[in-house]
Amino acid sequence: MKIAVTYDNGQIFQHFGHTQQFRLYEAVDGTVVSSKVISSGGSGHGALAGLLAGQGVDALICGGIGPGAQRALAEAGVALYGGVSGSADAAVEALLAGTLTYSAEANCDHHAHGHEEGHTCGHHGSHEGCHGGDCHS
To answer: Beta-strand (E) ranges in 9-125?
Structure first.
């Protein structure tokens, strides 16, 4: 299983569309066997989903993520675990153990007005039952 995490200095980066790096983890039988950090290339929402699919990623752990990116990930077959914060390594371990707490409110639904400096997504919007990128906005 390949797991990607939006990544910044060991922590989960809180805005999928602006992430500069992903940490990719390879897990076998519930144990991480390798990991590496890759650059996103600053591609944007849809291209980032394509980048992850091209890397063979099965699941993404991130902070906030907009509905367009959620759809792109769902179309690419990448399971989504949004609204997560803290240590990237700890989140992957929790996912593999089946104990990861993630949020159905991971939406970043304010794209009509642009992003202000210092803004972090993942703590607003409500989409009940929005697990695995199956959001119906």
So the answer is: 11-12, 21-28, 31-39, 59-61, 79-81
pTM of the model: 0.77
Across the chain, the runs of DSSP E, i.e. the strands, are 2-8, 11-12, 21-28, 31-39, 59-61, 79-81
Distance CA 14, CA 114 (A): 16
Looking at residue 106, its pLDDT comes to: 63
Tens of pLDDT, residue by residue over 86-106, are 999 999 999 999 999 998 556
User: What is the rounded distance in angstroms from the CA atom of residue 114 to the CA atom of residue 15?
Assistant: 13
Q: Quote the DSSP letter at residue 83.
A: S
